[in-house]
From TrEMBL:
<dbReference type="GO" id="GO:0016757">
    <property type="term" value="F:glycosyltransferase activity"/>
</dbReference>
<protein>
    <submittedName>
        <fullName>Uncharacterized protein</fullName>
    </submittedName>
</protein>
<dbReference type="InterPro" id="IPR028098">
    <property type="entry name" value="Glyco_trans_4-like_N"/>
</dbReference>
<feature type="domain" description="Glycosyltransferase subfamily 4-like N-terminal">
    <location>
        <begin position="13"/>
        <end position="168"/>
    </location>
</feature>
<comment type="similarity">
    <text>Belongs to the glycosyltransferase group 1 family. Glycosyltransferase 4 subfamily.</text>
</comment>
<dbReference type="Pfam" id="PF13439">
    <property type="entry name" value="Glyco_transf_4"/>
</dbReference>
<feature type="domain" description="Glycosyl transferase family 1">
    <location>
        <begin position="180"/>
        <end position="329"/>
    </location>
</feature>
<dbReference type="Pfam" id="PF00534">
    <property type="entry name" value="Glycos_transf_1"/>
</dbReference>
<dbReference type="InterPro" id="IPR001296">
    <property type="entry name" value="Glyco_trans_1"/>
</dbReference>
Length: 366
């Protein structure tokens, strides 16, 4: 059994981590990763020994690489093409008929929201993405909610397998005191880590407004991630006079170290799958404040492991931060983090993800 995973290559969020950690668990001769552009994903994949092939496009709409990709698939004898994301799905639609592959995809986000706030172009891309689903033979959904979303747009339930994201749980990193100092943070600061792409769907406005309204200078926010609305977020920070409380760190590889100095991890998305970043927080015994998206209710059991807030609930999010701060002041926050870690490790391991994925591959090839 040989599997080719195909993804655009420009990802910096959860789908990037999902692909690299999953493929790293497979025998090297069994898998290969194909991308349309170099980036952090291809670099990380190579670092863990994954074979990477680049089919460089002249532009996002360049279809000339598809003949090269089809020839590569046929020459190498891949049995399954496993795509990730709208770009890979859309392009595969024009190419899959030239191969003998079974085509499966992983749905990492709500397809109806992938191009939100993209205007007319966004609406067109959404339609093209959903159109590509017609030829896909099997779907992995990273939450039960996403499986329901697929069924609502006409995908048959028997063609969908729910596979939750997972990580290899390791002992928590000890607090990186020097990192805290380098970031200008003290032991008296309550530190919130917000790890997310800088994208409208991620809810940065909600968090920044909450921080502004709380008016507590001891509460500090680390924004970790890159994306298309970086300038808008910088302007919002200035507008709300939060420069002394917010640090923008961009894309970072030392997420575990950053979590080691954090008191709580944030998620504020309008739509999400099963966020790997929350599992990374759980690994570090960091409790969570999150909006009610994807499969978070299966990970964060309230109130002993964190707080879940309705999507877009400004007052609710502010209240959750206040409650977390009060728990921190009372010395009770760490216990929530330990409970979260214990629950996550028992139910959301990478080994379980690999087992379900392999089982599905084998079933498709029978």
């Amino acid at each position: 059994m040989k599997i080719l995973h195909l993804i655009s290559g420009g990802e910096t969020g959860g789908s990037r981590k999902h692909v690299v950690t999953l493929l790293a668990k497979f025998p090297r001769e069994q898998i290969c990763l194909a991308v349309f552009q170099e980036g952090a994903l291809s670099q990380e994949a190579r670092e863990v020994g994954i074979r990477v092939e680049v089919f460089q496009q002249k532009s996002r709409y360049d279809l000339s690489v598809l003949n090269q990709l089809a020839s590569f698939i046929n020459k190498e004898g891949f049995d399954i093409l496993h795509t990730h994301g709208p770009r890979a799905n859309f392009l595969t639609t024009f190419m899959i008929g030239k191969t003998n592959c079974r085509w499966v995809t992983t749905i990492h986000s709500d397809p109806k929201l992938d191009f939100m706030k993209g205007g007319l172009k966004g609406k067109l891309f959404t339609k093209l993405n959903l159109w590509s689903y017609q030829k896909i033979q099997y779907f992995f959904a990273v939450t039960e909610r996403f499986k329901q979303n697929l069924m609502e747009i006409g995908i048959e339930g028997e063609k969908i397998q729910t596979v939750y994201n997972g990580i290899d749980f390791t002992p928590p990193q000890p607090e990186d005191v020097s990192l805290r100092e380098n970031l200008g943070l003290s032991q008296q600061d309550f530190i919130m880590a917000f790890i997310a792409r800088l994208h409208p769907v991620k809810g940065h406005d909600l968090v920044l407004k909450a921080l502004h309204n709380l008016k507590n200078p001891r509460v500090k926010l680390l924004l970790i991630g890159d994306g298309p609305i970086k300038q808008e977020i910088e302007e919002k920070i200035n507008e709300l006079n939060l420069e002394s409380q917010v640090t923008m760190l961009g894309f970072r590889k030392d997420v575990a170290n950053l979590l080691s100095i954090s008191d709580v991890a944030l998620l504020a998305s309008e739509s999400e799958s099963f966020p790997l970043v929350l599992l990374e927080a759980a690994n570090q015994e960091v409790p969570i404040i999150t909006t009610d998206v994807g499969g978070v209710k299966e990970l964060v059991l309230e109130p002993e492991m964190g707080w879940i807030v309705p999507v877009g609930d400004q007052a609710g999010y502010e209240n959750a931060i206040k409650r977390a701060y009060d728990s921190w002041e009372n010395g009770m926050l760490q216990e929530k983090g330990k409970s979260l870690r214990k629950h996550a490790e028992a139910n959301f391991s990478l080994d379980n993800l690999v087992h379900l994925t392999t089982e599905t591959y084998s079933r498709l090839l029978k």
